[in-house]
Amino acid sequence: xxxxxxxxxxxxxxxxxxxxxxxxxxxxxxxxxxxxxxxxxxxxxxxxxxxxxxxxxxxxxxxxxxxxxxxxxxxxxxxxxxxxxxxxxxxxxxxxxxxxxxxxxxxxxxxxxxxxxxxxxxxxxxxxxxxxxxxxxxxxxxxxxxxxxxxxxxxxxxxxxxxxxxxxxxxxxxxxxxxxxxxxxxxxxxxxxxxxxxxxxxxxxxxxxxxxxxxxxxxxxxxxxxxxxxxxxxxxxxxxxxxxxxxxxxxxxxxxxxxxxxxxxxxxxxxxxxxxxxxxxxxxxxxxxxxxxxxxxxxxxxxxxxxxxxxxxxxxxxxxxxxxxxxxxxxxxxxxxxxxxxxxxxxxxxxxxxxxxxxxxxxxxxxxxxxxxxxxxxxxxxxxxxxxxxxxxxxxxxxxxxxxxxxxxxxxxxxxxxxxxxxxxxxxxxxxxxxxxxxxxxxxxxxxxxxxxxxxxxxxxxxxxxxxxxxxxxxxxxxxxxxxxxxxxxxxxxxxxxxxxxxxxxxxxxxxxxxxxxxxxxxxxxxxxxxxxxxxxxxxxxxxxxxxxxxxxxxxxxxxxxxxxxxxxxxxxxxxxxxxxxxxxxxxxxxxxxxxxxxxxxxxxxxxxxxxxxxxxxxxxxxxxxxxxxxxxxxxxxxxxxxxxxxxxxxxxxxxxxxxxxxxxxxxxxxxxxxxxxxxxxxxxxxxxxxxxxxxxxxxxxxxxxxxxxx
Length: 711
Fold this sequence. Notes:
- By secondary structure, the chain is α/β, with parallel strands linked by helices.
- The strands form 4 sheets. An 8-stranded mixed beta barrel has the order 13-14-16-17-18-19-20-21, surrounded by 4 helices. A 5-stranded antiparallel sheet has the order 2-1-5-4-3, with helices on both faces.
């Protein structure tokens, strides 16, 4: 076994060696193989640099492809072998340190650019050769009258020795003379070729202007023209050429002959078609890929008046589980099976299926009646997924969620349509999956707003867009202010002031709740210190700060809290952390351990929204809480007189139980004096709500506390 080279230069040299050995046998060069390798080494270095560039420069690939022509690698086989070598070995030897999948994608794009550069350079070289031959032919014709024997020999040498096909015909199209290269291209004998007329060589793919240019040339209205033209060979195969036709005049300047120069581009065209197919089709399933789909969608959306489109965006439910449990090979087999089923669902004119990537597929239908057709297409897809997929003896259930977008052409861009379909698909997935949903503009707008808020969250804290309002906590016995709950707000540049219900779930989903919660805790504790320093005569004021479930599981919760209290110089009893009942009821010891440590330090722990979950009252004995915050749903009936006797009994029972466990009871949502009085009679300790004050700036709490202190 040969050891892999360690140094980058050695690896680059090894790649150049492999490349030279592959290409040298089909190269028309006087260099030795080692000398040819030295000529390829700078090209290999350019490919390596382009592979690792910050932004892929396709011009580098085109330049390398063109340089192969300069190195006499003009045989199409040289390009084929070069592309095979780059595909197999460029990432292997020059791809250290970066994401392999990204490097392979870049390598594929470089190969495409190399093929384009090679083709362009070969074409320019051929055209130059054609022009030289044409000039030689014209010159030979002019000199015929003066030295026929010399010019005839020179012209014959050029005519017969040229690598491209050359033919001469009169102005009626009768073929007079052809060289061996042209005969080999067509697979005809000289006699059979001379029996043909130029006008017989029509082909269905001739460009509209081809024969117009020909007529102008034989009439003497133009001197030459150049087109890409296809010809049928006798065996039915197609010969593709770059064709240049020039007009030859006699000594008096009158049109006399036409001279055709042909370059066989069949192999190059097949290569371009192969590269085009690979660039527009998914390698695993053979379906059109994202690039091809966007081309079709853009065309469909640009159709004329009266045309509509319908799009189904499919994402498989639980596909990650297949990859994780059975391996990616099994996942790939499932994707191939799903692709085959989808392909069978979209066979009508105007319908297509594509794979966007991963387990995401799209089906497109176009026409005047897509409102009905897209629903039927989605139904066929759902039915096609019903049958389990058999992989290695296992029957795997296939489920999918589909988002449907339908509408008239010309109103939305491809990106907007796909975004709406994606949003709708996730709405179907959130509803349980294995179903399809129709796009809804209002739902799209909400999802886009959520996405915008999620995107803006990371920098909003740095820009100082968050602020805190405080709602007083009032003692029901004497009406004194005992503290306040800190409620964070977001002053968004476009949407104005947003409440926590708009952005806290987004922050929890992205993990940004941890730094945001730390900031809220730090600001609130600093405010508590200021209250205690300025209004100590009103009694010790406590600050209540909410903790999300994500913060509870964060390993730095206890240390962050200790550090914030110590930096602010505030005692732990000035802080109360509120945790929702759903986050604590049934929690294991590992989750409760940080709260127990904080409670042992003197921080109060409040069980927020008590009574909204599946409360197990026996669990209260094991929770490190000192306060129950009764949910407002139990006390709303107390705003009316008489209050619901059932609610009174429930609240009375909860208060009695809490006090028996040495827990204080706080009530949220107090809005009337009668409600506050009833809660006082029932024995509740503290309350908060609009009856006392709405959430506001810290100065508002100062005023309330000062009033209580001065009577």
